[in-house]
């Protein structure tokens, strides 16, 4: 018996020793296998961002929900932990021998991403966390309404807990604002004016009429109907939620309102990144991050001017062929946009019809994509309205991907604040960009990839993602989905819009254009409605460089496709080209070019 005990204890000791040898580097040092390091990096990042975990819903299917009652840490300490995580991860990654790896592309992708994060860390606090575009003050309630799912009694309780933590999140954000202000990072006055109006409107309703309350009341009613929640429990939760809104949410917004109301009268009207400390270097860093190239602001500006001239030339030909005077391009397009035949009724019924027609467009093109795509997403996409509480300053449209558990489809959000911003001839192109074969195809295919490290399924590279969506508009136009001349005009309008972005973004941030000069340029050179132009220019001001990624990404994809066609000749297959672009997930453009060149060299198979 003693002999068996000794053998068992010896075996346990060996297992514990082996576990220690294996687990200690996996958790704290350099893991034996790089795949374990990839997992550690993602887990470390995800644990710092419980809201990301909730949006992805990768843990819920196995019953893990610890994160669903937590908000992210918006404090300076939280930000600095993230910065340290990136530095440590890059240092660890570079301890591996890249050339000996079976999958060097994954190494290269993560290295590019982490290196960019580390190199831009000196500008980590050059942002405007509270802004009219996608600021904390609107994104937090938007998360509660559109991401936090109410599907169990536990998730309903988690909703209340999260709302009760709004005060902490707002105080953390205020701490970050003051930290930035002490270092000369203050948004221009119009940003404060916009967010003050938004926050005051957001907190105007009585607590039981507030969107955080009414959304929960509706979701909890469905839980009662399904038997997941009792009527008494729902009533108790609603009582507590009303208290949270009155005693936590409204006072938190009041503190933010008080802060910006005090700053607004003396705020600068300078708009560009050039006004910030070391502003030129900051903008160059943003351009590199978003475009994944080393193009300078001057190069991008010149490219924009060239593309604007080219696209306008084709649009003027169409206008003249349809009997319009194109001598004043901006005026001609603005008049066209206002023609009653191209607009929906400015009514609730008209807006419902817009959503229905967008869905019809998506369903139609989805049925015709087999000829051009061998790789297609398993998850579908639906169209919904941008929440009304944020529509005034939100973009014209955006896409939210489906969670990983398949509990919701991908969602194309259309902004219905003004029917004049939605001429019928532009709807196809927008649906193709946000939905099929644009963002929905690219993002969902990436999330469904197998055989690659998990980070490759979610890592963001703006030039690739937005470049693909703009390229997708071109694919739809090239393959017969926009044969009507006005639909063609809509396609070119969207492309011209992205070319204008190259000009005005660099104009504002590198050439010291005023907000008004940028607005005037875009009005004259797109013909877009003024309200839409103002919202766009104000977006570029608070997110420097991002708007340049679209056209640069699209042009790189078109360049690579042309190269493949020229070199492969009759062997070129559009479905195979699309598959090679999509099957690696998002990539920096330099790595995408290498992947495509390798595919061409292998014969395009």
Can you put this structure into words, describing what you see?
By secondary structure, the chain is an all-alpha fold. The protein folds into 3 domains: 1-26; 50-268; 281-556, no CATH class. The protein contains 25 helices and 3 strands. The protein has helices spanning 2-27, 34-47, 50-56, 76-93, 104-119, 136-146, 153-164, 166-182, 189-202, 211-226, 231-263, 279-291, 297-321, 329-337, 348-366, 427-434, 439-447, 455-458, 462-478, 485-509, 515-526, 530-542, 549-568, 574-582, 589-601, and strands at residues 381-385, 397-400, 410-414. The chain has a 3-stranded mixed beta sheet with strand order 1-3-2, covered by helices on one side. Helix 2 (34-47) packs antiparallel against helix 4 and helix 8 (166-182) runs parallel beside helix 11 (231-263).
Instruction: Tell me the Rg in angstroms.
Output: 26 Å
Q: What portion of the residues fall into strands of 2 or more residues?
A: under 5%
Give the ordered list of helices and strands.
Answer: HHHHHHHHHHHHHHHEEEHHHHHHHHHH
Name the overall outline: globular
Structure summary, number of beta strands? 3
Q: Major sheet: size, sense and barrel closure?
A: 3 strands, mixed
Count of separate structural domains:
3
Query: Order of strands across the biggest sheet?
Result: 1-3-2
Percent range of helical residues = 55-70%
Q: Uncertain regions: pLDDT < 50 for 5+ in a row?
A: 1-24
- Specify the number of helices: 25
Class from helix and strand fractions? mainly alpha
Give the CA-CA distance, first to last residue.
65 Å
- Provide the residue-averaged pLDDT: 92
